[in-house]
Amino acid sequence: MERPHTRPRTDGRRSRTLLRVLDGLGIDRAIVIGCSMGGRTAIDLALAHPDRVAALVLIAPAVGGAPAPVLDPIVAELDRQMDEADAAGDLEEVNRLESIVWLDGPDRPGRAAPRARELFLAMNGIALHAPDPGEQLVPDDAWKRLDEIAVPTLVLVGDLDLAHVRRNSQQVAAAVPGAELVELGDVAHLPHLEAHAAALDTVAEFLGR
What we know:
Elements: H1 13-25, E1 30-35, H2 37-48, E2 53-59, H3 73-87, H4 91-104, H5 114-129, E3 153-158, H6 163-175, E4 180-184, H7 197-208
């Protein structure tokens, strides 16, 4: 998961990897569900290979080429603490701080249930300890091409998520023709990880259509 100050970037490798997965499984068209960077990958796939995507479910999606965020003071302070812990090599502290930003919501530390926190720390810990993949190439500007997406699209975002993530999610829903936006209460960036009932019911209803 990207740090809150990081501008979403992609060089297309993720969407090409997803395409190879579909090919390997013999799937011609798929309903693609993605959260955060996964949402960005889903958007990139829909733009690059529209014939392979039947519908999109985007949960707090990142978008290539979106405006760089201006952080609220509380998020900026958490980000400063993350930089300090990272410089000291304390990845466990980075993981703890990121759980506040992405799981709890920046101004609600400790909000999420213990099981969700356990899942987050395990998932995010793998990413934090992974080797640096190296410098990325200049991204395609998906932000300016959202109106080219021509499949049924559902966008979900939590009311405790970062302000720029909420704004970007609203813009995605406004720009994609016919897209539906659902704003979820009392949840941040990862409603599915928390088994948020309204999120799961909304996705199930959308897929049923």
